[in-house]
């Protein structure tokens, strides 16, 4: 798949301004789309849209469902417009911090608000709601029941539920569905509203000629509807607890590797089933998104597996996955899927071979360009290829300014300035790196919003291998200035990306 020559911005929905403590699918999302269009940007990249929870550090990469949308992203303003809330319901607000997400406050406030909206909704029947439930019957009933049961079991992991529910005994599921019918319906309602608001926002993006790139994590959280509903697809023991978990070995981000803890797939079972779960997952996501970034693409070719009892990711082993057969099956079911490979880190020749065979664009990070290998470094702009997505950094990196001030070594700083051919004040460095990528042959360039604004390490979105303080950064309401629009549009047009 060849990407168009264009540029875009990486900003997750939660980072948008909003009076409700967290970015949502309401007015500010539409204002940001206007900013993208007016500044010549044709892509908006976001992080996974799935539900987040405090117990998982509020990470969008650790969710109770690989299909569901995050109810915290539902716009209260949109609910007022639909008549599901009164304006008075949203006028008295907690004292939310302005520039970060206080997830505990947001969860407490929004759960009560969304329940009030459901109470108003449930008195009638909507054809669109019934159709949504029917069209999403592959995943929605299991997801809704799982979330209802999890709440009724005080948040216990599903393997600790009563055995008949843990093992999905049909009569137990039928009884639970009857006992908790209102809770199940409320979960379905939240997914319906999320989908309705998201579809409207995506339609507006298309009107403005903006395309959305989403992120698809390779693994799912153990305590999720997906593992509960499809335990045969994962390496679990006789008590249905993980026997092997995923991670990555020591690398740039961590000397002990990253112990993710997600259960690894039983690729033999997936293959026997024709990869049906994966096909449904990708098919559903491309109804929501225009392009899908496959996170940790390396794991589709070979994955780092660790015994479940390990405390770090050091003592693992590489296991081969049936990548060629898997992607051929995907392409037979979904012709020309808009997939992008997240191929960062140590990439072996077999990964490159799969990417080349199927034409998947890879990723190049400019912050990785000034270490070893001198002028041969594959991340340097003069070494890029057309069929790739080039970034200054991603949500897992420090910002350009934060990197230069706090992370870059003296040789890296010297290499960068030699490459630029002159000394550059730190306050202007982000624009120099943006210009380097804009002028490169890479068809698509994406810049974190923090780098467009020249912010420091305090605006970093995520620090891999840390549990707290991530995913909280928010855009200031006054940041999208007329001057910023003009400057970004100018550099975009100069290098033919509009």
Summarize the structure.
Helix 5 (140-152) packs across helix 8. The chain starts with 5 loop residues before the first strand and ends with a helix.
Q: How would you characterize this protein structure?
A:
With 498 residues, this protein is α/β, with parallel strands linked by helices. The protein has a domain at 6-69 and 211-494: Glycosidases (TIM Barrel, Alpha-Beta Barrel). Helix content is 38%, strand content 11%. It contains 18 helices and 12 strands. The strands form 2 sheets. The protein has an 8-stranded parallel beta sheet. The mean pLDDT is 95.
Q: Shape from CA axes?
A: globular
The helix content, as a percent range, equals 25-40%
Overall strand count:
12
CATH-defined superfamily of the domain at 6-69 and 211-494: Glycosidases
Strand content: 5-15%
What structural class is derived from the secondary structure elements?
alpha/beta
Would you identify the regions where 5 or more consecutive residues have pLDDT less than 50?
none
Give me the number of helical elements. Answer: 18
CATH class of the domain at 6-69 and 211-494: Alpha Beta
Distance between the termini: 19 Å
The sequence of SSEs as H and E is: EHEHHHHHHHEHEEHHEEEHEHEEHHHEHH
Briefly note the CATH topology name of the domain at 6-69 and 211-494. Answer: TIM Barrel
Main beta sheet: 8 strands, parallel
| Rounded radius of gyration (Å) | 23 Å
Could you report the average pLDDT, rounded to the nearest whole number? 95
Numbering strands along the chain, what is their spatial order in the largest sheet?
Answer: 9-6-3-2-1-12-11-10
- Corresponding CATH architecture of the domain at 6-69 and 211-494: Alpha-Beta Barrel
């Amino acid at each position: 798949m060849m990407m168009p020559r264009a540029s875009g911005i990486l900003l997750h929905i939660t980072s948008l301004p909003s009076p409700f403590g967290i970015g949502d699918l309401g007015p500010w999302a539409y204002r940001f789309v206007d900013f993208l269009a007016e500044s010549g940007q044709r892509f908006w990249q976001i992080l996974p849209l799935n539900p987040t929870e405090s117990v998982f550090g509020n990470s969008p990469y650790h969710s109770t469902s690989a299909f569901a949308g995050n109810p915290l992203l539902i716009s209260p303003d949109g609910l007022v417009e639909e008549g599901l809330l009164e304006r008075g319901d949203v006028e008295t607000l907690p004292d939310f911090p302005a520039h970060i997400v206080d997830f505990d406050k947001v969860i407490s406030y929004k759960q009560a608000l969304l329940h009030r909206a459901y109470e108003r909704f449930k008195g009638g029947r909507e054809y669109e709601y019934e159709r949504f439930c029917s069209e999403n019957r592959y995943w929605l009933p299991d997801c809704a029941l799982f979330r209802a049961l999890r709440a009724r079991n005080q948040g216990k992991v599903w393997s600790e539920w009563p055995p008949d529910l843990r093992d999905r005994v049909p009569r137990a599921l039928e009884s639970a569905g009857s006992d908790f019918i209102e809770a199940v319906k409320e979960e379905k309602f939240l997914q319906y509203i999320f989908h309705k608001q998201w579809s409207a926002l995506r339609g507006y993006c298309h009107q403005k000629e903006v395309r959305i790139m989403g992120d698809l994590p390779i693994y799912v959280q153990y305590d999720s509807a997906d593992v509960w509903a499809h335990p045969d697809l994962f390496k679990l023991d006789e008590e249905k607890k993980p026997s092997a978990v995923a991670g990555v070995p020591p690398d740039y981000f961590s000397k002990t590797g990253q112990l993710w803890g997600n259960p690894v797939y039983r690729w033999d079972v997936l293959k026997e089933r024709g990869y049906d779960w994966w096909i449904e997952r990708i098919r559903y996501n491309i109804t929501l998104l225009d392009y899908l970034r496959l996170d940790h693409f390396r794991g589709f070719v070979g994955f780092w597996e660790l015994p479940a009892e390990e405390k770090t990711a050091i003592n693992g082993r590489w296991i081969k996955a049936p990548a060629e057969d898997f992607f051929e099956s995907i392409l037979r079911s979904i012709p020309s899927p808009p997939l992008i490979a997240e191929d960062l880190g140590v990439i072996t020749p077999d990964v490159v071979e799969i990417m080349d065979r199927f034409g998947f664009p890879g990723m190049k990070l400019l912050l990785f360009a000034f270490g070893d290998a001198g002028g041969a470094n594959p991340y340097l702009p003069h070494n890029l290829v057309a069929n790739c997505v080039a970034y200054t950094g991603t949500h897992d990196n420090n910002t350009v300014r934060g990197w230069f001030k706090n992370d870059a070594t003296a040789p890296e700083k010297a290499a960068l300035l030699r490459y630029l051919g002159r000394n550059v004040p730190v306050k202007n460095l982000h624009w120099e790196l943006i210009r380097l990528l804009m002028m490169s042959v890479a068809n698509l360039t994406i810049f974190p919003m923090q780098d467009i604004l020249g912010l420091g390490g305090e605006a970093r979105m995520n620090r891999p291998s840390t549990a707290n303080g991530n995913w909280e950064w928010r855009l200031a309401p006054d940041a999208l200035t007329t001057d910023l629009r003009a400057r970004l549009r100018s550099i975009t047009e100069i290098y033919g990306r509009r």
